[in-house]
Design brief:
By secondary structure, the protein is of the alpha+beta class. It folds into 2 domains: 95 residues, OB fold (Dihydrolipoamide Acetyltransferase, E2P) (Beta Barrel), CATH 2.40.50.140; 289 residues, 2-Layer Sandwich (BirA Bifunctional Protein, domain 2), CATH 3.30.930. It contains 12 helices and 18 strands. The protein has an 8-stranded mixed sheet with strand order 6-12-13-18-17-16-15-14, with helices on both faces. A 5-stranded mixed β-barrel has the order 1-2-3-5-4. A 3-stranded antiparallel sheet has the order 7-11-8, with no helix packed on it. Helix 3 packs across helix 5. The two termini are 36 Å apart. The model has no long low-confidence stretch (mean pLDDT 91). It binds one RNA strand of 76 nucleotides through strand 1, strand 2, helix 2, strand 13 and strand 17.
Amino acid sequence: MRRTLIKHVLVSDAIGEPVKVAGWVRTRRDSKGGFSFVELNDGSSFSGLQVIVPGELENYESEVLNVTIGSAVAIEGQLVESPGKGQRVEVHATKVTVFGLADPDDYPLQKKRISFEKLRDIAHLRPRTNTFGAVARVRNALAYATHKFYQERDFLYVHAPMITSSDAEGAGEMFRVTTLDPAAPPRLDGAVDYAQDFFGKPTFLTVSGQLSAETYASAMDRVYTFGPTFRAENSNTRRHLAEFWMIEPEVAFADLSDNADLAEEYIRYMFQFVLEQCPEDLAFFDKWVQEGLLDRLNALATSEFRRITYGEAIQALEQADTSFEFPVHWGADLQSEHERYLTEVVFAQPVIVVDYPKDIKAFYMRRNDDGKTVAAMDVLLPGVGEIVGGSQREERHDVLLESIREKGLPEEEYWWYLDLRRFGTVPHAGFGLGFGRMVQFTTGMQNIRDVIPFPRTPNSADF
RNA sequence: UCCGGGGUAGCUCAAUCGGCAGAGCAACGGACUGUUAAUCCGCAGGUUGGGAGUUCAAGUCUCCCCCCCGGAGCCA
């Protein structure tokens, strides 16, 4: 008999028909009536399926009564309307196959709530909990929405390399990739001789797929990357990971305004999609993780984002009757507290800040005509802060070269990047969106370590 | 990396001035005719993160180390 996923059984109308399901037991409650209730979850939906196991089954005493939370079983039986409260249908078992028991003396999960911190220590078992099952489904839905959104708009999915020989991508400390023996590396004049390393030169894990995306946008018009990126920063916050996933669209013949349109549309699309696909999971987060989550997501799925310039942002902050830890003045970068104040207090909605001072932004951002600012943009969301950073890229060869020199970057490493401006250069723009932060915002989960299956942070790379 | 808060039973936590290390839940045994975080009775559960020190006596005080959480910086 063919197995049906529980999410399909729960909405099935085939009352009286035979059905087969399998999954992991959440609870078993025995009745004096000589039968047991078994709640089964297979990860396909938030809700589990209630199974009634009659005492007459031949393995009832020998096996079923040993089934506890965490056990893996398959059930064959009949779908019936449930006389009890709390579920529409249930299954009356005619056969129970026990694949694996979970000794309750050792099994670390229980029906009672366990702290997220403790669950990180058992990350291999936490997807079996309500919260992490729901996070996994929402994360999946957001990834699906991402591909759907860009594919529907004729973007090409580009796989950026994860290993790079450029140590000057300008986005933070990098992890070194090497096959040399760290205890005894080959040396040349005292220094490590990377000519003998696997790639014949020093290599690192990428911090961004942007530069690769730009090369493909300069041929395929509109592209996006969606892959892991790595930062060796010693960041210990609830918003940072050493290994995290980023989505980076890049569009040719586009300016900063087109870029902001795209970011806004994309973010709204994800909210709409996940509201449609994961109502049960979101209702759970709304009730147990962050009150008011559903109202906010619903509002965001349709509302426009507020767009202001950096100069206007500084003005608004200078007029604020709050005292900030970091002083506000034109030329200073916006701190977390400033970003939060703008998006949470001043406007109380998502905010896109554009045109930042050139001195605090990356070399590749397009210089504005005022000579002071660049065509950069940050998208700020209440609760998470910066979720998108992007810009129109500098397409003028001489201006880009000047920027590279001004910032003291190694010109020779950018020969291919400069080539894009020598041959058929084109105005183009793009941004990066931190996928984990999007999942955080969508689920209300406070810590980014709890929205990725196996978080990598300083001092922690288990599982 | 900096600042602050923590680490006690399987889990969530308590322990007054330094004086016998406790509770709820889970688990286990039993009771209960369809339960929904079931309920009731009973039983059991400990190298107090690791190390050193002060003391008649340390979960508690001192020092070193490890780990976790929150905030900041860096950023997505």
